[in-house]
Amino acid sequence: MMGEKEMSKYWLPWLVGMPAESARAICSLMFGGVFKKFPKLKFCFAHGGGSFPHTVGRVEHGYNCRPDLTQVNLQGPDESPLKWLGHFWVDSLVHSPEAFTFLVKIIGQNRIVLGTDYPFPLGECYPLKSCGELVEGYGPFSHKDKKQVLWYNALEFIGKDESVFLKKSQTDTKLEPQTLQTESQNTGDAKPIANEKQDISENKVVTEEKTTE
């Protein structure tokens, strides 16, 4: 991790080095022209993008004042760092309402997904807190805004419609794991354990079966 040897005390690699590492990753992709070359490639950075949102002004200024060093794969104001802010996602785990306010202003609430960092100590769920507490309790957000960050933006990120995950009406047939039956169960053979997972590429649910004795 960035700074692990230089900042071995006080847990600083995790408190300071990790956010800086995220900022370095974003800047590397940006200045390297990856966002430009692959506009459909989606990235989501943990911990609110680390320290990047708070240093983007400095990054933008450096791009303009030292083009000889920064404008190697990008050129001119039309490809400046500020242009690429809408080309990636970050999560919501910034630990304070004040930092979250700034994150929404810089990144935009349509590019923020729920982040928990579970089960690590720096995660929102530790100790004795509920995941999503920061977003749920964020005063300036309406119910619609909270819904967008808590789950709708994540659906957009993976390219899925909410209808794929929401249960249909009670009159429809429910295919839940505990009630799923197969031929082997009906014939008295060994019972398979159904493990459903989403196949993103083919937009369908694939069921893997394992046999237990």
TrEMBL record:
Pfam families (UniProt xref): Amidohydro_2
Molecular function as annotated in GO: aminocarboxymuconate-semialdehyde decarboxylase activity; hydrolase activity; metal ion binding
Keywords from the named record: Decarboxylase, Lyase, Metal-binding, Zinc
Compositional bias ranges of the Basic and acidic residues kind: 194-213
Primary enzyme class: lyase
Residue spans of biased composition, Polar residues class: 176-188
Signal peptide boundaries: none
Source species, domain of life: Eukaryota
Residue ranges annotated for the Amidohydrolase-related domain, each copy included: 16-159
InterPro entries xref list: ACMSD (IPR032465), Amidohydro-rel (IPR006680), Metal_Hydrolase (IPR032466)
GO cellular component entries: cytosol
Any one GO BP annotation for this protein: secondary metabolic process
Region (Disordered): 170-213
EC identifiers of the protein: 4.1.1.45
UniProt pathway annotation: Secondary metabolite metabolism; quinolate metabolism
Subunit structure: Monomer.
Family: Belongs to the metallo-dependent hydrolases superfamily. ACMSD family.
Protein name, as recorded: 2-amino-3-carboxymuconate-6-semialdehyde decarboxylase
